[in-house]
Automatic annotation (TrEMBL):
Protein known as: Cupin-like domain-containing protein
Organism: Laspinema olomoucense D3b
Family matches, as InterPro entries: Cupin_8 (IPR041667), JmjC_dom (IPR003347)
Domain JmjC intervals: 241-378
Gene3D superfamilies, per the entry: Cupin
Pfam family, one: Cupin_8
Source organism superkingdom: Bacteria
Length: 378
């Protein structure tokens, strides 16, 4: 490195030495030059400005520094200045146009919603590159670690076809059995749902207590309807009278915690035509089809922003009767559709949107007590 030290007494400084700032200019190629300036000398400001302006934004300027008591001068282009050292330190006010670009006020911060939507669209585009996109596997059960690796941590739905093979419920449960054995038990169910499009959101208004036997009669005699359903949040397993039903089922030891926690198991029973509207669950669940068939429409979490969500978990969109005028974005939705039959266990991963229709009188159970991390706080 060439260190060319040029002794400068300050021709521009007339004050006594104690007021002067020693300024070392370091130039391209290892050259150095030391001068003495008043702390408020305009030249000092210009030198700092040259240092902080991005090279592509600045016009190169030629500095002329008087040396040798003003008898000589040092010339260098502003772009060759690489650093300045001062003794003592001076406080700097960087001119506005020289501030680093990210601190300039006219640049708006990024819109976080747009950013997230971009990210979701990108993930969705990527997942659709798979030739298997939209195909939900139907397979015999796999070991717990394999389930975790292939489906749970990948947030991927799957149907297991043999997990309920040893359940007594598979041969015992039907509406008649419920009536004969549990007809006297008071249960909760939703009624008058046809009067209100958002019946699931206003579920407390629709929930009524009824004798299980009376509800069975209504289901068997009423034909297809969405007007009543022993659906979400009925808490019927917390009623002691129904605990006997739990003897007819077995937990899947590789996937579920080993207690039959009545708060984490739900009974779904109703007529053909009963619909659970489009929503997602904030945790992983299993939906076990015991009797009758259901159509499940699924939408991956990467399409959340197209779903007109409300109340955290619900959507106003009815996938059975899509309103394209009100929700034009519906034409871009990719909907997966599947039928679950008696004996099928559908793994519904956290965040996946689903709308479910009973195709005939139907009995299902859902489990929330998964054996892996299953708390995803909002
Ligand atoms: O079976 C149904 O009607 C709905 C099930 C469901 O949405 C769930 O388990 O989260």
């Amino acid at each position: 490195m060439i260190a060319e030290k040029i002794k400068v007494d300050s021709a521009i400084a007339t004050a006594d030495d104690s007021q002067l700032v020693q300024v070392m200019l370091m130039l391209d190629g290892g050259h150095q030059c030391e001068i003495a300036l008043m702390p408020d000398a305009p030249l000092l400001g210009e030198l700092f400005q040259a240092l902080t302006t991005e090279p592509e934004k600045s016009e190169s300027k030629l500095f002329q520094i008087p040396i040798e008591e003003g008898n000589g001068a040092l010339y260098f282009p502003s772009t060759s200045l690489v650093a300045i050292a001062t003794d003592p330190a001076v406080s700097l006010t960087i001119p506005e146009e020289s501030k680093p670009i990210e601190t300039r006020e006219e640049i708006e911060p990024d819109d976080p919603v747009q950013q997230l939507e971009w990210q979701l669209n990108t993930y969705h585009k990527l997942e659709k590159l798979s030739p298997n996109y939209g195909k939900i596997e139907r397979i015999p059960h796999v070991s717990g670690p394999e389930f975790l690796e292939r489906f749970y941590i990948r947030n991927k739905p799957v149907i297991f076809t043999d997990l309920m093979d040893n359940w007594k419920a598979r041969s015992l449960w039907n509406p008649q059995y419920f009536k004969e054995k549990y007809g006297h038990v008071t249960v909760g169910a939703q009624f008058n749902r046809e009067s209100n499009q958002q019946y699931e959101w206003y579920r407390n208004k629709h929930q009524q207590m009824v004798l299980f036997g009376e509800f069975v009669d209504k289901v068997l005699q009423g034909g297809d309807t969405n007007d009543y359903y022993m659906g979400a949040y009925n808490a019927n397993f917390s009623r002691e009278g129904l605990h006997g039903l739990l003897d007819d089922i077995e937990l899947f030891p590789e996937y579920l915690t080993d207690s039959k926690d009545v708060n984490k198991i739900a009974l779904w029973f109703g007529p053909g035509g009963a619909i659970t509207p489009l929503h997602f669950d904030p945790l992983n669940t299993f939906l076990c089809q015991v009797y009758g068939r259901k159509r499940v429409r699924l939408i991956p979490p990467s399409q959340k922003h197209l779903l007109g969500a409300y109340g955290r978990f619900f959507s106003n969109i009815d996938l059975e009767n899509p309103n394209f005028e009100r929700y034009p974005q519906l034409k871009d939705l990719d909907i997966m559709e599947l039928i679950i039959e008696p004996g099928d266990v559908l793994f519904l991963p956290v965040g996946w949107w689903h709308q479910v229709r009973s195709l005939e009188v139907s009995i299902s159970l859902s489990f929330l007590n998964l054996a892996f991390e299953n708390t995803f706080d909002f």
